[in-house]
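Protein Record: Sequence and Backbone Structure Tokens
======================================================
Tokens: labelled as protein backbone structure tokens, with as many entries as the chain has residues.
Question of interest: how does this chain fold, as expressed in backbone structure tokens?

___
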Amino acid sequence: MVLKDLPPDARPREKLLTRGAAALSDVELLALLLRTGMAGKNVLQLAQELLDSFDGIAGLLHASADDLKRIKGLGGPAKRAELVAVLELSRRALAQQLKARTVFDSPQAVMHYLQLHLSAKKHEIFAVLFLDTQNRLIAMEELFRGSLSQTSVYPREVVLRALHHHAAAVVLAHNHPSGTVQPSRADQLLTQTLSSALGLVDVRVLDHVIVGGGETLSMAQKGLL
């Protein structure tokens, strides 16, 4: 079934044009992009299945073209490529906004940004946001992967990348694929080690954010920095 076959008041395109994009659900917005469903499954059902498969929009933002092959109805390369392109544009738009103005004064802005980038990762990732003197984003880099500890995250490498970007401050971040966002003792020791190492080159650690599932935790807000 295609969108034009739906009742007029249920068509996402008409709803968007008359009431604005904010009036549409995630499923309806995604259905607009997909345009058609498949035999036995209309486009809204396909959109819902897609969101369920990736645990919502945040997970979908990390989906690759290969990931999308798992969804029956997205077998065609053209549809997969179009969807991946739109998702990548969304990520780039958010990054551009963060680079254009001072937003990292707010831990909520940091956590939202990192949630989009790290929540769907299947293994542990340690990332660093490099910021300028006005707390604007210079770059985000995923520096280490795997089981994180003081021995697997190298302070020297973090310091070198901070100097490379001429960063004045950083936000440390990593994800917990298990879903819990409570910092372990190892997380706290790692934060202290990196804060000391970066302090030697006058780079401040503003926060260490932990992402897990649909949650995020700011160690700075918890008084653990």
